[in-house]
Amino acid sequence: MLTSENIAPHTHLSVNENKLVKRLLRETGRAIGDYQMIEDGDRVMVCLSGGKDSYGLLDILLTLRERAPIHFDIVAVNLDQKQPGFPEQVLPDYLSARGIPFHIENRDTYSVVKRLIPEGKTTCSLCSRLRRGILYRVAHELGATKIALGHHRNDILATFFLNLFYGGRMKAMPPKLVSDNGEHIVIRPLAYVHEKDLIAYARLREFPIIPCNLCGSQENLKRKEINRMLEEWDRNFTNRTWNVFRALSHVVPSHLMDPQLMDFAHLKATGQADDEGDHAFDAEDFPAPAFSEDDEADTALPSDDGTDRSALQERVLVRAHASHQFAPDQPTAGS
């Protein structure tokens, strides 16, 4: 696995730009290593839409390949869905100029979607199904052993909350999965990467971004509502979204309620102490949040509102002290 120690700096970049590039390479390399996404001899088909995420994915994988201890091939694939005004030459010109092997698949899914979906309704679901089937076929024809998608950490979190709020399921996007037709391995190498870093990287690399005029321009989608919620959390609550993301890989089935994951029906008392067992009558001992200006603001309540300000101030001080003793496992500054 590639680490920050064996990723050479880009001497022509500023200090902050170098940090950005190294962070992207480190997090992508770590995700690839953690889930064994790419193996020696793989032919990786990178799905390139023309958006910032897929451009970033392709560029990062090309850089990692130069330093990887294994050999793997990369081919970029774009599905031209025949959207009106789509600049057909942008991707071929960009890929040709960089010497990247590519394939453009021409399929008029745009007309199909517009014909079947009433005006004003969300097209994402049908568009995604059509696109997925075509890309699976292309992967087979190209001999690709892995299909790489550009979903990042924010996408995974948004999908988790969409399923939680609207589907009643604890389900997100896996970093690696078998395709629904059973023939392909799909990977998401950017699983650990924050979207803001991909935005900054796209500006740095000056990718010729192509906007999506089909689903990308639709307003009031549930996903956008979730993204606004996550953005607000990022602004106001230190590490809240990071801890939710971290929880996706720290699941404790015995402390949930799914009988498919835990055989609750046949639980028996063993008569032996278990430090990992449930302390059924104890309050959960959570790490306290970091002390913030919000906590200080709590102490400045009007004196006539009936609030015990001395007790409130004591609670704030306890929280601040506890946060230093029980800080959660979290990324270092700037990561």
Structural topology:
Layout: H1 15-34, E1 43-47, H2 52-67, E2 73-80, H3 90-98, E3 102-106, H4 109-116, H5 124-142, E4 146-148, H6 153-167, E5 176-178, E6 185-187, H7 195-205, H8 222-236, H9 240-247, H10 293-298, H11 309-325
Parallel strand pairs: 1-2, 1-4, 2-3, 4-6
Antiparallel strand pairs: 5-6
Helix pairs in contact: 1-2, 1-7, 2-7, 6-8
Compact overview of the structure:
The chain has 11 helices and 6 strands.
Q: How would you describe the overall organization of this protein?
A:
The protein is of the alpha/beta class and 335 residues long. It is 43% helix and 8% strand. It folds into 2 domains: 4-219, HUPs (Rossmann fold, 3-Layer(aba) Sandwich), CATH 3.40.50; 285-326, no CATH class. It contains 11 helices and 6 strands. Strands 3-2-1-4-6-5 form a 6-stranded mixed sheet, sandwiched between helices. β2, α3 and β3 form a beta-alpha-beta unit. The chain is globular, with a radius of gyration of 24 Å.
Notable features of this structure?
335 residues; alpha/beta; Rossmann fold; 2 domains; six-stranded mixed β-sheet; 43% helix
Topology order in helix (H) and strand (E) letters: HEHEHEHHEHEEHHHHH
Radius of gyration: 24 Å
CATH superfamily of the largest domain: HUPs
Query: What is the averaged pLDDT score?
Result: 82
- Fraction in helix: 40-55%
User: How is the main sheet built?
Assistant: 6 strands, mixed
Per DSSP, the total helix count is 11
